[in-house]
Amino acid sequence: MKKVVLMALLVLFVGLGGLAGCNKEQEKQVPAAEPEAAAPEKKDPTAGWQPQFDPSKAEYTYLLSNLSHPSIEGVAVGYHIRDKVWERSGGRLYVDYRPLSQLGQEKGVLSKLKLGAVQGVLCSSVAAANIADTLGIVNLPFVIDSAEKLEKFRNDPELFDEFRNSALQQKLMVVDVSSYGSYGWATKTPVRTLEDARQVNFRIAEAPVNADTYRAWGMKFTVMPWGDVPQALQTGVIDGLDHTPTVCNISHKFEVARYFTRVNYAQGLFIHLMNKAWFERLPEDLRQILLEVITEESAAARQRDQVQQREQIAAAEADGVEFLELTPEDRAELVKRSESVYETWGAKVGPEYLAKVRQRLAQ
Questions:
Q1: How many domains does the chain have?
Q2: 64, CA 20 to 30 Å: which among 157, 197, 219, 333?
């Protein structure tokens, strides 16, 4: 009996050993698991704007920031400045342009600009009022409310110099401006009257001028960073937004907000701010080249912006977006209600300066 049990155990032991060996062989033959497919690389939106030269040889670098997409003419100007400065300086000065918030959001970048860690910013006009109250004049309702008035303001030395010099208290220079269209209301439901507008919760920018304006107009509004707008619009946190047709179409806001009311109360601007101490360390010839190019290219960009706005409106209309107008009576009501904003901001920018700007641009 013992022999039988021993024999059975021996057979069982050998069998298990063989099975283990077999499993090891199978492990050797099973190929390693396929690595997970790599996520498709996101297309670089700046790929078509890479420099056609080697910037590593430059003696000086001008780091220039912006929060928006270069498909907007007022943003693309940074690349035009880069290429023209490189050409005219013979490769001595490289404008390292970083749109799409590559260097951070505007508030953080403005802090870096003051410290000199960033040398320049194409700053949205709504945010620029946080640098100096006087810069808020371009966002006051119905003051610089057309491309024609913007050119008149920019090319009047007496008006523009006071605007330009207002940032010097922060050790910053205002060099020039580019534009991105006329402000109005993109909404989910049609807004043909002020009564319609008062049913909408508008997103407005993080700027004191805008908050004072919407408060004076008697509108509901939510102050919100631009990055939060898509989800807020989708989920109904907001019903509309205060912006320009160009930006709304290019950034796909018209996919949700299918109506646009042309209020045309202000021009959307990027104000070219520069760190003064950095600029003054540049050789004199490079200073002159940089300022000349920025002036030329900013003017050209403002002209292209007018063409782009017409094109973007036509494209949006072809896609079914409806463009609306307020009645003359409702527009006059908005102008009347804006007087309290002029009173508040006149005290900040200087009542004489505001009166002078309004008078000259109305002529």
A1: 1
A2: 157
